[in-house]
Amino acid sequence: MSVQTVEKRSTVRKTAPRYRVLLHNDDFNPMEYVVQVLMQTVSSLTQPQAVSIMMEAHTNGIALVITCAQEHAEFYCETLKTHGLTSTIEPDE
């Protein structure tokens, strides 16, 4: 009787690429409204975080809202646009 060695191949899982959701400044929406929409869209954001994101977009022209998987990033971006905010996504490098 012979013994055979079975070679087990390891599976390496690649993590899904991540995307950044960006909020752009606009001169149309009140600051309070932007904070409210950010908190409704990304439920994990606290009010201080939403205020910080809004202020960064206001002062620098653009702010990072969240970094996540592409499908979620597209959803957040579209939801922000639906509420009248300017938003884009880009790959996180």
Kindly summarize this structure in a few lines.
Helix content is 41%, strand content 23%.
Structural class: alpha+beta
What share of residues are in beta strands? 15-25%
Mean pLDDT: 93
Biggest sheet features: 3 strands, antiparallel
Number of helices: 3
Major β-sheet strand ordering: 2-1-3
Q: What is the share of helical residues?
A: 40-55%
| Amino-to-carboxy terminus distance | 55 Å
Return Rg in Å: 20 Å
The quaternary state of the protein chains shown equals single chain
Order of helices and strands: EHHEHE
Which overall shape is indicated by the principal axes computed on the Cα atoms? rod-shaped
Low-confidence stretches: none
Number of strands: 3
Outline the fold blueprint:
Elements: E1 18-24, H1 31-41, H2 47-60, E2 62-69, H3 70-82, E3 86-91
Antiparallel strand pairs: 1-2, 1-3
Structure, described:
- A 3-stranded antiparallel sheet has the order 2-1-3.
- The protein has helices spanning 31-41, 47-60, 70-82; strands spanning 18-24, 62-69, 86-91.
- It is rod-shaped and about 80 Å long.
- With 93 residues, it is an alpha+beta fold.
- 41% of the residues lie in helices and 23% in strands.
- The chain has 3 helices and 3 strands; from the N terminus they run E-H-H-E-H-E.
